[in-house]
Amino acid sequence: MRIRERIDQWFAQQGWQPFDFQKDLWQAYAAGESGLLHAPTGQGKTLAAFLAPLLAHTPSGPAPSVAPLTILWLTPLRALASDTAQSLERPLLDLDLPWTVATRTGDTSATQRKKLKQRLPSCLVTTPESLALFLTYPETRQRFRHLRCVIVDEWHELMGTKRGVQTELNLARLRAWLPELRTWGLSATLGNLDEAREALLGSELAQRARTLQGRAFKKIEIETLLPEEIERFPWSGHLGIRMLPQVVKRLHAAHSTLLFTNTRSQSEIWFQALLDFQPELAGRIALHHGSIDRKARQLAEEGLKQGDLLAVVCTSSLDLGVDFSPVDQVVQIGSPKGIARLLQRAGRSGHAPGQVSRILGVPTNAFELVEFAAARDSLEIGQVEPRTPLRNSLDVLVQHLVTCALGGGFEPAAMQKEVLSSHAFAELSEADWEWALRFVTTGGRALGAYPHYRKVVELEGLHRVTDRQLAQTHRMTIGTITSDTAISVRYANGQRLGTVEEWFISGIKPGGQFAFSGKRLELVRFRDLVATVKPASQPKKGQIPSWQGGKAPLSSELALAVAERLAQPASPDDPIELSKVRPILDLQQSWSHLPSRERLLIELTETREGQHAFLYPFAGRLAHEGLGNLVAFRLARENPASISISVNDYGFELRARQGLFLDRESWRQALVPANLLDDLLACLNTAELAKHHFREISRVAGLVLQGFPGQPKSNRSLQASSGLLYEVFAQYDPENRLLGQARREILERQLDLTRLKATLERLETIEIDLLYCPRLTPLAFPLWAQQLHTHLSTEDATTRLENMLADLTQEASRGKVESPEVLS
Fold first, then answer.
1. Which residues contact 580 (CB under 8 A, 6 or more apart)?
2. d(Cα 3, Cα 477) in Å, to the nearest integer?
3. Taking the CB of residue 45, how many other CB atoms lie within 10 A of it?
4. How confident is the model at residue 62 (pLDDT cuts 50, 70, 90)?
5. Cβ–Cβ under 8 Å, residues 515 and 469
6. First-to-last CA distance in the chain?
7. How many Å apart are CA 375 and CA 193, to the nearest integer?
8. What is the largest CA-CA distance in the chain?
9. Please, which residues bridge with residue 287 across strands?
C-alpha cells in the first residue's frame, strides 16, 4: 500500500479528515517549496508539517533500513522537546514506518548524547542552541548530508528575539550546505505573516515560498469572573486575591485547569493563597514556572496529562506546544496584556480540532474588566499583534562566526554571502561585516594585545579556531539566553528546588523565611551561589521571590482597543464587563472626561504633594516611561523644576511643587515628535543604561563568560568584567559596534522607541482635552497611588492612600460634584 493511502487510512481510523491546509502543505512540500503555516492552536499544524516529509521521502516499497537524519525539528523550549517527540512517534508507530525520533537539548543525558554521536535519528527534535552546538563540529556537515527538511515550531516565540536571529543564521548555514533544503515555520499567533515568512527564510527564498492559513480562528469563549463589588477608585493588583473563593469554586467545577499568571512571583502568591484558603488542595494542585527544578515541572506536566491534578498554577512556561488534552478550563489571572497571549493560552484547553477553547479571566483591578472585553473585541475581528524581527544584532553575528570557524572553518566571501542571505543581516553594511571579521580574528582595536580575544585564525585559506581550550569554552557558553546570576535553592540533602536571582536572596538573612516552589522555606545559609534551605518550622508569611523583567506591557493593539471601549457610550448591548465597570466610567465622565483614540486627555490636579498632570496616551507602560521622561525634560528645560514621574499602561503622571499648570499649546510643544532622539539621549542617563545592558551583549559576543556547570560566576564578577570592557571600549575604541548596539537596544527594548515615536506622531494629529480637576479621578488614582509608594514608607503610604480613598469615596457618594474646568 502506498504511503499516502496508509496515511489516509490512519486518519480514518482516528475519525479524522485531513483539513485543506494540511493537504495544501503536503502538496507544496512535494513540489519542493518552503513556507510558513499559520493556524490556531490545536488544529493539526504538527501533523501537517511532519507528514509532508514522510509522504515525500518514504520509499514506496519495503524500506531496506531505518531512514537517516531527514527532518530537523526546532522547538523554542527544551521542555517541549520530549512532548514533541512523543507526538511525532505516534504516527510512525501506527503506520509502522522505518523512522526514528530522538531529542537533543540541554536536558539530554550523557548516555543519550553518546548514542547520538554514534547514530542520528530520522527526525531530531532540538533547540536553536543545540543546533548551533552541532554546527561547531566539522563532521556535522557530513552527518547532516541526508537532511531534507527543517521545521521551526512556534516561530512566533523565536521571532523578534536574539534566539530568532541565531535560528536565522543557523538556517542560512544549513541552506549553504544543502541548497535543496526545505524549511517550514509553524505559528498560531502572528499579525505580520509576510514579514514572519521573510525572517524565517531570508528575502530571496521567501519570494518563492508559501504562506498557508489554517482554518478560521478557532472558537474561543472568554468569560470574565466579576467581583461582587466594584470600587470606583481601583489600583493595580488589589482585587485579584479577593476573588479567591470564586476561583476555587470554578476549579472544583472543572476536571482540570491551567491557572495562568503573568509573572513567576504572582504564580507563587496564588499557589500559596489557594493552599491557605483550602488546605485539602495539597497534592491536588501543582506549581509550574521556569525557575522551578525541571523534575518538579515534569511531575506537574505528567499529573496534568494523567488527570491526577485538579489544577496547575503556571506562567508562560506552559504557554506553548505541550498537548494537555485533558485540560478543559484555562483561567487567566489579570489581564493577558496582549491578544496573542490570550489566544495562545486559551488554546491550551479544547486542544483538538473542532473543540471550543474556553478561558476565564480574573481581573486584578476593575479596569482589567475593560481589557478582557477589549481583547474579546479584537479576537472577534481576528486582530493579533505583529512580532518585529531584529536586525543587525552584531553580538549574535560574532558568536556565529566563531561557531562556523569551529565547525570546519569558513571562507570570508562565502560566509558574508551566507550571512547576508538571512533577514536579520540582509542590510548589514560592508563596514559592519569587516568590523565583525576583525573582531573575531584580532579582538578589535582595544583588545588586540590579548591572545584569548583573537579567537579565529586564517589557515590554508579558511578562518578556523585552533585553540582547544577556546573551542571548549565556546561550546559550553553558546547561545543568546542571558539572565541575572541564578542561585540554586536546595535542601541540605542536596535536593534541588529551583533557582532565584542573586539580588533577591542576598536580601534575606539566615533564619528568614520566603515562599518558593510552592513551599514555605527558611534560609539556612547562602554560600558559593547555593542557598541552602529547610522547611519553615513555624510557617508564616514570608517574602515572595521576584524576577527582573517579568512584567509585560500592554500591547499597542490592546491598548487602543481599551481606549476605544472606554470612549463608547453606555448601550444595552455592552458586554457584561462594561456594565459592571460602568459606575467607574460614569464617575470618570462626571469628574473629567473619558479618554479616546481621537483625543488626548490631560488632567491637572492639586494635592498636598503639589501639582499633578495626568496624561493618557494609551501606548503601554514602556512607551509611557519614555514619554514621561521626555515631557518632564522638555518642561523643566523651559522652567527648571524637579518633576517626578509615575507610569502605567494607560498613561503617566508628572508631579512637581509647581509649574505644571500650563496651557494647551505648552503641552502640545512638549509632545512634538521633532528632536525625539536627541532629547531622549539628553534627558536619560543612556550611557549608564547602556553600560548595564552591555553585560548581556558581552556575554552573547563571548567577551564575558557566564561560567561553567558547577563553576558559575557571581553576578558581581560578571558586572565588573563587562563594566571594565565597556570603559575600555568607550576610551580606546569608541567606534566599537557593540557599544552602538547597546545604546540602540536600550532605546528599543527599555523605552520602546518605535512605539514612542509612533505615539507622538499620533498625538500630533489629535485634539487635546485639557481639564483642571478638583480631585483625583478614577483613572488618575492608580497613578497617584503608585507614585505614593515610591516616595513614602510603606506604612505612611498606606495611611495616606486609605485617607485619600475614603475622601474620594465620600465625595463620590454625595452625587453632586463640581464640574471640571476646561482650560484653553
1. 226, 227, 230, 369
2. 43
3. 25
4. low
5. no
6. 82
7. 20
8. 88
9. 313
